[in-house]
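Action item from last week, closing it out:
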Amino acid sequence: MPYSPFPLKPLTTALCRPLQATLDTILPPRCPQTGQIVARTGEISADAWKDLTFITAPQCTCCGLPFDYTLPEETSHATEKESLLCGDCLAHPKPYHAARAVFAYNDASRALILGFKHGDKTHLAVALGKFMASTGKDSLVTADALVPVPLHWRRLLARRYNQAALLAWECHRLTHTPCWPDTLKRVKHTPPQGHKNAKDRHENVKNVFALNPAYSAKIKDKKLVLIDDVHTTGATLEACTKILGEAGAAQVDILTLARVTRQN
């Protein structure tokens, strides 16, 4: 049964606890990666997590790309650390304020993400959302709302859930930041981005997204956090950010589960 992004009412949750405890005793929850027994359904075992490459400083203060070097000790001034930009952000300024991701998209994380995104393992949103809320805490604490990247209705019908919306709802549950899942609409059904290069990806998302008219006044002067599963070239994220900026959003930050750290 697909994971529901909507929080259960307290009474319902209380009534379910004894039943869940009984089920966990008979059929202990297991890590979807390793098959090891874990404390709660949707959690990842320690052995699975140790194979993931978590993104930490130093990283580009704009797009979040991790650097392959360590900052020297003498780089102590906050203004110096806050202005560390990668070559791409210096050459091509981004429309968003800052982008952050939990871990690098590589062999270890790919199976986890594809299982969540295409394999109906929607219960993983519980564990993955927890890590996203921790990684994005600086943005989430001051955000007015979370906005997931939308799917076209045809793809949503085929997949039956929007993985970005599930992650956004889990971040909402943990941080209480409002979630506006229908702020953006995908108005064109485009081919998957999977095997496209950066140039083709940007071309593929031109005029694909639009603002839901119901939010025209609502997002004006608001600080928003755009949520998605993977940050690859940034084409989709930048297209969505531009729509929000044109509608009057004061600031847009990006929060994703993973990001590609090396571009072709």
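Closing note: The first strand starts at residue 98 and ends at 104.
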